[in-house]
Amino acid sequence: MVREILIWPDPVLKQKAKPVAKVDDSIRTLVKDMFETMYSAEGVGLAAPQIGVLQRVIVLDTTHAQPELKPVAMINPEIIAMEGDTTYNEGCLSIPGESADVDRAAAVTVKFLDPDGNEQTLRCEGLLSIAVQHEADHLNGTVFVDHISSLKREFIRKRMKRLKTSREQGAPASP
Ligand code: NI
To answer: Which of 100, 120, 130, 133 is 20 to 30 A away from residue 80, measured at CA?
Structure first.
């Protein structure tokens, strides 16, 4: 089921998500919903807090840029190693239409549980590395605009306020 994505700023997006205690069918349903929501919004990553669920679950699909990889769901992801530096122009499904350069590690190694509850370790490079760091930030109440200048952040805040107002008023349907 496609779920509604919260738009920044939203108090839920500032909260720290809780670790998943048990990987069960409710978590697998959450993962399925998150993939459907991410694909419907044409994103490469989504974190559970973005659909209002404060649990440590993220989904990623960077296969358009990295066809050798597979879509991946990570439960309780933990970045255990970082290598090198890079800068990437990031966007976020919770901040539609905006992007900014963010400094990240070039490669990360992540430990997580898969949807079967098995522990996995994955070294991520390129776009997947960026996406994992971006989505792991969401689990700690951080969004990419927290990494940029306050001036640029305030411009984005104003544009998001206008976006929310126009959505609340309901834009007229175009023919
Ligand atoms: Ni995001």
So the answer is: 100
Strand ranges (E), 13-84: 45-47, 57-60, 72-83
Distance, CA 134 to ligand 1 centroid (Å)? 6
The pTM (predicted TM-score) of the whole model is 0.95
Tens-digit pLDDT profile for residues 86-139 = 999 999 999 999 999 999 999 999 999 999 999 999 999 999 999 999 999 999
Distance 154 CA to ligand 1 centre (A): 17
Architecture of domain 11-149: Alpha-Beta Complex (3.90)
Ranges of beta strands (E only) in 1-118 are 45-47, 57-60, 72-83, 86-90, 100-104, 107-113
Catalytic entry in 42, 78, 135, 168: 135
Q: How far is the CA of 35 from the centre of ligand 1 (A)?
A: 14
Between the CA of 89 and the centroid of ligand 1 the distance, in Å, is 12
